[in-house]
Design goal:
- By secondary structure, this protein is an all-alpha fold.
- The protein contains 14 helices and no strands.
- Helix 12 crosses helix 13.
- The longest helix is centred in the middle third of the chain and has 38 residues.
- The chain is elongated.
Length: 405
């Protein structure tokens, strides 16, 4: 029995050695990495033999060649070895974010001009811009009034709702003070008239204009008070588009500057756009002094003359003519007061400019040194013996508009 076991062990060892030699030959042929030890160096011959047979069926990748620096290069996966990802629940296809193609710059001559593409504006753009201008104007008015000490600035570090509430409260307080000031001015105007009736000093130009302004504010008081109590939020819109509704005591300094700038711009536009009509009016008035004023202004000249006098040009010609006569009648009285007060030499710069603009004389672009000269020209030519004072002043308005002094 022992001899049989010995013979079987020898046979198995020979068989394992033969298999090992075959495995080594195949390994050398295919550059196999692992080196299989002979079965007699292993603890179990059957395990070594099975590992040798398994190495024949396993594909071993070749070793990467070492570079000259001694570091092995990394394997770069190829796109062919990857499988495309299959989306089981695909979402909506998104447009590709490819940058727009830049057109090459052509070296064309300057004459070959390409017309630009017209910009098409959408309808909501106009309201947005108007809203932005209104907000900016209101903000500027509040800041300017705060710097002048008219309105109290908001507390530092206040939130946006608190600042907005503070601003609305300050505007409301300012308008209420303006309404109370109208009543105070009414008492002062009555005291001035009582002084004259009692045989005191006559009214000066400043007092005359103060009484006239207070009378106009009283007329505007009731509708303005209703606006404050009902819809105070539209007052900035009134300042921009209907400033004639506001009493003089309820206008901030920055708002007055904006109103005056728009009035001067209106004067310039009427003088530039109706220069030919005003020149014809001037020639007709000089050629025939007997032509009445109604005839002079019946050929479309009432609108330009009213625009130069800072009057409203709405309504029929008869209504425009009535406004012009009333304005020029007040100017006749004002001219008499100015002649009595040294031809307006006591006026300040602001009063001098207002006097010229009320007479249709454009002051934009005119040096301040010439303001006194223009007013002197008006006062010396306004009253002609035997001539209608209102008609004569219409001639002066047309002459100043066309630059004939």
């Amino acid at each position: 029995m022992l001899s049989t076991l010995g013979k079987n062990g020898v046979v198995e060892s020979l068989t394992a050695a033969r298999r090992y030699r075959v495995a080594v030959d195949l390994h050398r042929r295919f550059h196999s990495v692992p080196v299989v030890r002979p079965p007699w160096q292993c603890q179990g011959g059957i395990v070594s033999a099975s590992f040798a047979i398994r190495s024949l069926t396993t594909a071993v990748p070749p070793r990467p060649a070492k570079s000259s620096t001694g570091t092995a290069p990394q394997d770069i996966p190829t796109t062919a070895s990857r499988k495309n990802k299959v989306e089981l629940r695909p979402g909506p296809v998104k447009p590709s974010k490819t940058p727009p193609a830049v057109a090459p710059v052509s070296k064309a001559p300057a004459a070959a001009h390409v017309a630009p593409t017209p910009h098409t504006s959408t309808s909501p753009s106009t309201p947005v811009s108007s809203t932005e201008s209104l907000v900016e104007a209101t903000k500027h008015d509040f800041e300017d009034a705060s710097q002048h000490g008219i309105l109290a600035p908001p507390p530092e570090g206040a939130s946006w709702p608190r600042r907005l509430f503070h601003q609305a409260k300050e505007f409301f307080k300012f308008y209420m003070r303006g309404i109370k000031l109208i009543e105070t001015n009414r008492r002062r105007a009555r005291a001035m008239r009582d002084r004259v009736k009692a045989g005191g000093a006559p009214l000066t130009r400043w007092e005359t204009r103060f009484i006239s302004t207070n009378r106009t504010d009283i007329v505007k008081l009731v509708p303005f008070a209703l606006i404050i109590l009902v819809i105070e939020e539209i007052i900035p819109l009134i300042v921009l588009y209907a400033p004639f509704v506001l009493p003089s005591t309820c206008i901030l300094p920055s708002q007055k500057d904006r109103i005056d700038a728009k009035r001067r711009e209106k004067q310039k536009l009427y003088a530039a756009n109706h220069k030919q009509v005003l020149e014809q009016l001037r020639r007709r008035a000089l050629e025939d002094p007997s032509v009445p004023m109604n005839t002079l202004l019946d050929h479309g000249a009432a609108g330009p003359v009213g625009g130069l006098l800072c009057l409203s040009t709405l309504g029929p010609a008869a209504l425009q003519l009535r406004r012009i006569k009333r304005q020029l009648a007040a100017i006749v009285e004002d001219d008499a007061v100015l002649k009595r007060e040294s031809l307006g030499q006591r006026l300040t710069q602001a009063e001098m400019r207002d006097a010229l603009e009320e007479r249709g004389i454009i002051t934009d672009g005119l040096p301040q040194k010439q303001w006194q000269t223009r007013l002197h020209w008006w006062l010396t030519h306004a009253d002609v013996e035997g001539a209608d004072p209102i008609r004569q002043r219409v001639l002066l308005v047309a002459s100043s508009a066309v630059g004939r002094f």
